[in-house]
Each structure stands twice: as structure tokens, then as C-alpha cells.
Amino acid sequence: MPKFRVMSRFSDTRQKTRETAHRLLAEGRRAHELTVDSIYAEIRQGSRTTINDELKRWRDEQSRASELAPSLPDAVSQAALAMWQVALEQGRAAFDEERTALAERTVGAEAAAAEATRHADAARAEIAELRRQLADRDGQIALLRADLGAEREAHAATRDRADTRLAAEEARRLQTERDLADERAAATDALAALQHDHAARETAFRDELGRATERLEAVQKHVLLQLAEAREATRRADADARAARDEAERAAERQRAELAAAQTRQDALAARLEAQSALLAAQTERAAGAEARADDLRERLQASLRRPAVAARPTGGTGKRGAGLRPAR
């Protein structure tokens, strides 16, 4: 949907540019002497481009006003120009309002047209979809009709086969009933023969049962006798077992007593062995002491043998006696 841009009214910068130009002109400045810098120095806002455009437009208006009334005084010309400016601004404001309203109405109309177009497109799409569905249903109906015809033909063929099969089944049923009647008659005869044979076998079985009962009673008596003998043998075996167990306990008691006595003797022998070991150790120690003393005596004897002989005296007799001495062995 196209968009319209509505022109805004004169900005505050343009309005102040015109007011400042009128004021400077009233103060005695000439129109051609007014510059962008002088206007900007007064209003201190807006862009220089906007001020330049509006100042050019104001100069053009001043030139046209001067051409229209060249003989009028300046005050009258300025007043007429101010009135013209006010009328021009009011006309522009009214034009802007009309343009804004027209743009709004145009936007509303375009929105309504777009909505109508959207609804029309949706309706056309829905119609196309309905037509497509109708075509699909027509095709489905045609297929269903074809299937129904084929189904009817198949049903007719199936019914014919079923009738044929039913007739064959009926014939087989009649034959089966006849065969069953024959089998029942044969079964009745066989049952009578079996009942007669069963009666004969039952009589023979009862006779055999009587004889078996007699044999069983004889066997029971024999078993009871053997059972009594077995109980007596068991009683004697239990008595023998108790006697053997008592004898074994007495033998075990004797063995425990002998074991205790042997342990006592072993303890005594161990004590004696320990005492003899202590005595042997003492004797060994005394022998070691005696041997040490003997070694000491031998060393002392050897030392005494190594000593020099005592010097002889000056007298002869003494010297002879001293010369005859021998070291003791």
C-alpha cells in the first residue's frame, strides 16, 4: 500500500527568520544587507541552510511587494507586506490542514481498498479451493462408482460360487447322515458285543480277585511272621550294640587312665632330664674352672722354670751345693 508524506508547517526557525528580518528592516536595515550570519546571530537556532532558504523567499516576497507598490510609503508597504505574510501563512496553514486531511482520507481509503482486495483474494482462493475439492470429489465419486460396479460383479460371482458350494455341501451332508446312520448301527452291534465280553471278563476278574486275595492274606501272614523275627533280631542286635558300646566306653576309660599315667611319667622324666641337664651344666662349669686353674698353674710353672738360677756364694761349700741344684720338674 503506498504511503503519503504530509508536508509539515513552517518550522519555528523559518518563522523566527521572517520575524527577525521584518524587525531588522523596521530598524532601518535594507533587505539586501540582511545575511544568514546576521539572522543566525539574532535567533541562535536552526541550520544555516534553512535560514538561507527562508531568507531568499522573504527577499523575493519583498521584491514583489516593492514592484506592486513602488509609490507607497515604506510604512504602508511594510504593513501591507506584513498583512500579506500573515495571509500567506494562514493560507499555507489551511492548505497544510487540507492536505493532511486528504492524506488521512487517502490512507483510510487505501486501507479499505487493501482490506477489500485481501477479502476478494481470500474469496477467490476459497472459490478455487472449493472448485478443486469439487473436482476431487467428482473424481472420487467416479472411482467409487467404478469400484461399486466391480464390487457388484464380484458379489454376483461370489454368490454363484456360494450357491454351487452350498449345493455340494448339502449333498455331502446327506451322504454324511447316511454314513453316520450306518456307523451308529455298527457301533450299537459292537457295543452289545463289548458289553457281553465285559460281563465275561468281569466274572473272570472277580474269580481271579478272590484267588489273589487269598494269596495276599497268606503273604501277609508270612510277612508278619518275618517282621516279628526281624524285630527279635533287632532287639538282640540292640542289646549286643549296647554291650559293645559299654565295653568300648570302659576301654576308652582305661586308655584315658593309661594316657594320664603315661603323661605323668613323661612329666617326671622331663623334670629329671631338666635336673640332669642343670647338673651337667654345673659340672661343665666346674670343669671349665678347674681347667682354667690348671692352665694358670702350668703358666706359673713354666714361668718359674724360665727364671735364672740363683748366683753362687764365694765359699766353696756353698758353691758346690748350689751347683748341684736342678730345676724342679
Automatic annotation (TrEMBL):
Keywords, sorted A to Z: Coiled coil, DNA-binding
Coiled coil location: 113-140
GO molecular function, one term: DNA binding
Compositionally biased tracts (Basic and acidic residues): 235-257, 292-301
Boundaries of every KfrA N-terminal DNA-binding domain copy: 14-126
Region (Disordered) location: 235-259, 286-329
Protein name: DNA-binding protein
